[in-house]
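Troubleshooting log. The previous run stalled partway through. Resubmitting the same two chains, unchanged.
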Amino acid sequence: MAKGMREIKRRIKSTQNTKQITKAMEMVAASKLRRAQNAALASRPYSDKLKEVVASIATGGGSVKHPMLQSREIKRSAYLVISSDRGQAGGLNSNLLKKLVETIKSKHKSNDEFTLFVIGRKGYDYLKRRGLPIQQEVIGVPDSPAFADIKSIASAAVKGFENGEYDELFVVYNRFINAISQIPTIKQMLPMDAAEFSKKEGPAADYEYEPSPEEVLNVLLPKYAETLVFSSLLENKASEFGARMTAMGNATKNATKMIEQYTLHYNRARQAAITQEIAEIVGGANALS
Amino acid sequence: MSTLRLEVVTPERKVYEEDVSMVVVKGVAGELGILPHHIPLVTPLKIAPIKAKKGNSEEFIAVHGGFMEVRKDKVVILAEAAELGSDIDVSRAQQAKERAEQRLAAKADEVDHKRAELALQRAVTRIQTSGQQ
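Second attempt completed without errors. Output:
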């Protein structure tokens, strides 16, 4: 019996170690989540302002036309996939990638009909293994990303649309609801929905444009699109930490439960060992008398 | 004396927010001086330092591209990157300038050339901004 006890004791110890690690990871994720949420908030003024100015040109100008605002016949699509570099975040990445692959399968017949831009190692590995065409990837985006980290891939994705390499561009990312729920989302980014701009009737200031409304729009729209990519990235980061926090919280809870059970087993085994010992002593004493 | 509020915003944060009496920027169509009660205006900017006048003192901010929105008593500059003069690492900018110049001299293909030119502009802007502080 003593051998079985040692075995159980070792298991308790190793589970305790695991629990310590998951607990630490949960707390790290919680603090990073707060930072990611703050970063997402800090990026708001920039994108709000851009949207406001774009909207005032798109609606006020009247005859202003821009290829990024007009939908054309769809021959080829592009997807910009935002995933995380590390796992241990529950089903965050796999849910997202599964949804993407399903969408691709139902919409496209061959690999020539679409192309992929990928941010994050998890997405890159997964899609590469399936032999899907990846045009460009960025791996190792830091936990508090700067705009410069994704600038090149975002502008490449926007430029491809401008050059007519594909006729629509989707952003694939995890929408952040709260720490326990994130929704895998495929959002159309280009062409932009002109109706979305005209919807909001604010106190639109009558701007003067220098050199001309068209020229300003030419500069602004690609910038706006890149900003949308950046805010999706920030949101996905927040989702990642939220999901990791929840996953690690569950792992900690499970470890606690397991330790409880093992302790029970251990105590039973200990009691049995003692009982047996007493029985042996009594048996020995009886044999003597 | 009337003032206008100057805000410099990047995707990451608000870099600058102060009441100033005059803003001087370099737009794509030329240099512009904005005083309070300017008519509403939107223009893209070049990579250059902007100058904010506050009474008798002047402040410089390196703005790397982006654009400016002017309203009656408010100027908002949206840029992908912007730094105050005091935040700039001059030696790093100097190194970047030399690197870009070397690359320009090497006459690589067109894309590299363009990139090097932009890098040079950014470096020069940074050096100018910190030099005038």
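Takeaways: Chain B has a mean pLDDT of 82. The radius of gyration of chain B is 16 Å.
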